[in-house]
Amino acid sequence: MRDVLVVNAHLIRDRSTLVTNGWMHVSDGKIAALGSGPAPQVEGTEIIDVQGAFVAPGFVSTHSHLFTSASRGLGASEYLYGWATAMYAPTARCTPEQMYWHTLHGALDVLANGVTTLFDFNDPRRPWAPMVQGRRQELPPLRPFEFGTAQLDAKVASGLRTISAIQLESENDDPEKAFEDWAATVEYLRGQDRSLALDAAVYGAVQWAPNPAVAELEVRAMGEYSVLNQAHFLETPEHVELQQSKFAWYADAGALGPQMIFGHFVQTTPAIVEAVADSGAAVSWQPVANGRLGSGFADVVGLRKAGVRVGIGIDDQACTDLSDPWQAMRFGLFGTRAHQQDPTVLTPADVFAMATQDAADVLGVGDRVGSLDVGKFADFVVVDPRDPDIGPVRDPLASYVLAMSLRNLRSVYVGGRPVAHGSRSTHPLADECRRRIHALA
């Protein structure tokens, strides 16, 4: 792999470190050195002159569903379960091969928008069925094993770094078979390129489960395979008491701890927040999706004050309709300030961290991604405040969060290699993927 030297950059290394007139040396896909002033002369190195643009860490999403990329605009005025019924319809009968292209479409989309690491929920093998009070009204048969592995293949092929959550399909009479199938999928993932397929995780499903045995099986998987578990939890304002009662299932099963992440986490109680904080569990915050679906606004300020780790997730392309990390940062920032009527409760630096380093820490990969530090993967974005021009940059980090957008995103790099320029993917299958997705509609 050829070395790269980025020069003439405003390096945003993390929430508190800006390097003006900066340079960054990339070797073997990782950051080898960086500094300010004249760049070192490294023979045989490709020079990337960004001409004063921002160079910042690639965004990290703590919660996404890549396969939904071609299902946007559906259920536009529905709560969670009505939206889900509409959104799942286009992919309900997909073959493994078709699901490969759906997932690749989603992965290339987020990469082109500056997201370089992502926690993704594999679409489960059991198709979606309508929910009443958080419970399935029917139990469709499982789709083939390859339905899951095709999604894993697409993620690796895209060049996106992912942690893939796989559901234990235990809503049957044989939980041991469900565990074996889950474990086989995990082993398949762990045989892939581990610089991209960072690891597997449990797709927490207690929110829709009929009994506490589901939580117990998930905890077994967490322990035997040393993986994270992220559960969609306390999300919708429908049947809140039922949702809250299921928190005890996780607590009693022993799930609470640093391996546990609660996604959405809107309909909480003080006791639940205290238990999560005391255990070291984390929260994935989806401000845009929660707004789109009328779910409510998570008390992120209260969670952070309690000591809970929080990272932002861009969520579905089908329930945010854009995989836009700036949209997520600003919606979260402005909504929180408006809700609390206080502009000091959350800062641009806070949401930037929650979309980069804090998100990486929540996912347990903060030693590899999330900031521009020596030894980490060279995953970065080039963002130009002069195209379109915003005028003089007086506060770089505030301007990056408040005034930049996808219009300013010039290029995206993963491991020092370009994966997108402007809004266009550089992937060799990008055009074919677009054609196939439209042909499937």
From TrEMBL:
It comes from the Bacteria. This is Amidohydrolase family protein. It comes from Kineosporia babensis. GO terms for molecular function: hydrolase activity, acting on carbon-nitrogen (but not peptide) bonds. Residues 54-419 form the Amidohydrolase-related domain. Keywords: Hydrolase. InterPro entries: Amidohydro-rel, Metal-dep_hydrolase_composite, Metal_Hydrolase, MTA/SAH_deaminase.
